[in-house]
Design a protein that fits this description.
single chain; alpha/beta; eight-stranded parallel barrel; metal-binding; HpcH-HpaI_aldolase; Pyrv/PenolPyrv_kinase-like_dom; metal ion binding; aldehyde-lyase activity
Length: 261
Amino acid sequence: MIENRMLARMQEGQTALGLGATMPPASHMPVFVARAGFDWAFLDLEHALISPENLGLLCTMLRLQGVTPLVRIASGSLDRVASLLDSGAQGIILPHVETAREAQDLVALCKYAPTGRRSWGGASPQLGYPQKPSAELMSAADATTLAIVMCESRSGVDNIDQIAAVPGLDGVLIGNVDLSLDLGETGAPDGPATTEAILHVGRAVNAAGRHFGIAGAPSPERIRALQGLRIDFLLAGMDHRIFAAALEARAETWRSALGSA
């Protein structure tokens, strides 16, 4: 069966490094992601337009390169979970979660009975189409399918103990920028209120034995400042921002070399 590299890294006590994917899908993208050393890819359906067909192809190509594909759905799109998992995603990320009930709803659709109520769709590409008994495949899928919620508001922070305690939940991902907006620190994801909220959430998630992750951290220094937290997974950036920065840097290098403004 196909390994979940992200999960393996976290279980080894390492921080799994992820890249956000929002640009139009291309066949070479998974190769670049894998060669750069990323462990997982954050396929964003909340803020980007990726067709179901392209998403399935991306998931398959990423898995074949040893990169774990996770899909962030939009709030209110839980009806898409089954088809996304059966198309090859190895986990689902649900944004803007503020209650334990919302986390329970995600787990129910990501896990088979008795933990959840995911419908059986056969030996999907998620596992590499192994020819094994259905019960064995369901058990393997439950062990390697990640159900992750995002904490991005004051309400989510206030309810984090109940959210992190939901049976079957695999992890909590802090949305650093959106959290700072909700806490009134617009444009300051390293502000004091946001920092305190992240520390509170991280400690609760660590204590509950769930995987804790951060998205939207402005710099490695920001992460190092969060002392005492076990950070299991990190979204290192979004492809369009990295691409734009690289293009600008290359253009500036050549303008300077050629002596042009």
